[in-house]
Amino acid sequence: MKHYLKLLLLLLLLPIGHATAQYRSQVWCPDRGDGTYTNPVINADYSDPDVCVGGPDGEDYYMTASSFHCTPGLPILHSKDLVNWEIVGYALHNLYEGEGNEALLAHFSSQPQHGNGVWAPSIRYHDGWYYIYWGDPDFGVFMVKTQNPAGEWTKPLCVIKGQGYIDTTPLWDDDGRCYLVNGWANSRAKYASVLTVRELSKDGTRPIGQPVIVFDGNGTENRTCEGPKFYKRDGWYWIMCPAGGVPTGFQLAMRSKSPYGPYEHKIVLQQGKTNINGPHQGGWVHTKFGEDWFLHFQDKEAYGRVVHLNPVDWSTGWPVMGKKGEPVTTYKKPITQHQTPKTNPAESDEFNAPTLGLQWQWHGNYDEKFGTATAFGTYRIYTYKLSPNTNHPTPNLWQVPNMLLQKTPADQFTVTTKLRFTSKADGQMGGLIMMGLDYSALVVRRVGHEFQLVQLTCKAADKGKAQTETVLATLKPTAEDKTDYKPGIHEDIYLRLTVSNAEAGAPHGGKPVVHFAYSQNGKKFTNCGEPFEMRQGKWIGAKFGFVSVETDPKADRGWIDADWIRVTAAEKL
């Protein structure tokens, strides 16, 4: 009966597409309901955030962030008050799409490009259009644009070809001229800690000037200056950028009467006596109500780089952020004329819509053979063919692009999913994973005419290390195909992971730890496996979701049918 009800709901949704109702998180909500908020305003890995003001009345705020190799890329978040945010879309389908990039797309479509791709984008509203610029350190500066941030964006245009370009921001001046500031990736250019400015054509599509170094942090406390954002205010050109390193650095503001400098600079936000480390790299907005705010990240290691909101005081002529230059934990909300309900980026998913929920990203360029929505109220993820590895018989999962993952939403939480795993051949497996440089997964794997419940764990997956495999239980199939043509066997199961953040001095030294459990009826769960200490990915936080793989290159694929996944307050362990 449930499948028929889900199908009816699916048919009702088809004419309007994937409806995104406002979502309220059970694990983190910054809006305190009394006119104040608590940082972080998004307790998830939206690294290198940037924000702009748009909309017909100047009261819509749009944010984007680094997405690196994950797709879809360039997430678009919307808010009416800078505190309550929802995901409304993505500006990029796959890496290296666009005219002239066909060879790149073909070359890189088969495996994840960990740490590559979209670095530190900027979003701007100019002359009725929204623009996003970003630097791909391997290929150059790219741009997309739209008039509807929640809709379709243009295919990426390569504005400047070359290696080393990162962290790009345009500035359209009062006379219509366009300038671009950027940083440099030492890993490609073999130099860093400098910012350069050049002129672009007025439409922002090509360079018409040569780069000029406008700031040099080498040999000073301002080392690792990067992530610049470009503004103009009261006749001054402003560049705001982080320096001093990601975990422990600070925010600089610099000003000049010319876009090419020279710039004088000051530290305008730093940790000080607070426990908010490395507060820097983000975007400044001036609201129609005369207020100024700065959205930036805090590096929380395994959780990634979460988003904070701080007030900005310009009374000295400089943008002093937070409370006298130190970040705030709680503060009054920005002024708005709208009654904004408590809204957070989506987490749980019932998989009832004909398109994938906006919280999900693949771990590489999407291929339709990875998986797709169904008409049955489930999302299907096919097994990915693991490549043979001569170093060990079972390759680790680092190069699997069809993992369907989302960001961790809080310091502590529980994820429970109901799924059916269908197997056509021995060795096929699927289940729930916490993925990073290290990973651990709870999967069901076919062995003969049965399934095993297995914990897969790998330390230093990025270094090619072998995973360990621990068999936790043997499970009889819950259903079998009654046919002699390529029959499958099925396992209906509930899988759970709980993330706890141990206090300092406790086991794991206060690091976030994952505990697994399973159930065959959805009521009684059995704890299983060994605790796993989370670790971040390559420039991203750890992510959780689904994995579905196999090692037989000739077998028909098996698959996961995920019925639902729900994120709730952390279960007691």
What does this protein look like?
With 573 residues, this protein is mainly beta. It is built from three helices and 38 strands. Strands 23, 26, 27, 29, 30, 31, 32 and 37 form an eight-stranded mixed sheet that branches. Strands 24, 25, 28, 33, 34, 35, 36 and 38 form an eight-stranded antiparallel sheet that branches. It has a four-stranded antiparallel sheet with strand order 2-3-4-5, with no helix packed on it. The relative contact order is 0.14.
Summarize this structure briefly:
With 573 residues, the protein is mainly beta.
Keyphrases for this structure?
about 575 residues; eight-stranded antiparallel beta sheet; single chain; eight-stranded mixed beta sheet; about 45% strand; globular; mainly beta
Helix-strand layout with pairing:
Elements (H helix, E strand, L loop, with lengths): L1 H12 L22 E3 L11 E5 L5 E5 L8 E7 L5 E8 L9 H7 L10 E8 L2 E8 L3 E7 L10 E5 L3 E8 L5 E7 L1 H4 L4 E7 L11 E5 L12 E5 L2 E8 L6 E7 L7 E6 L10 E7 L5 E8 L5 E9 L6 E2 L8 E3 L28 E2 L8 E3 L5 E4 L1 E2 L18 E4 L5 E11 L5 E7 L3 E9 L2 E9 L9 E8 L3 E2 L8 E13 L10 E8 L6 E8 L9 E8 L8 E10 L5
Parallel strand pairs: 26-37
Antiparallel strand pairs: 1-22, 2-3, 3-4, 4-5, 6-7, 7-8, 8-9, 10-11, 11-12, 12-13, 14-15, 15-16, 16-17, 18-19, 19-20, 20-21, 23-27, 24-25, 25-38, 27-37, 28-34, 28-38, 29-30, 29-37, 30-31, 31-32, 33-34, 34-35, 35-36
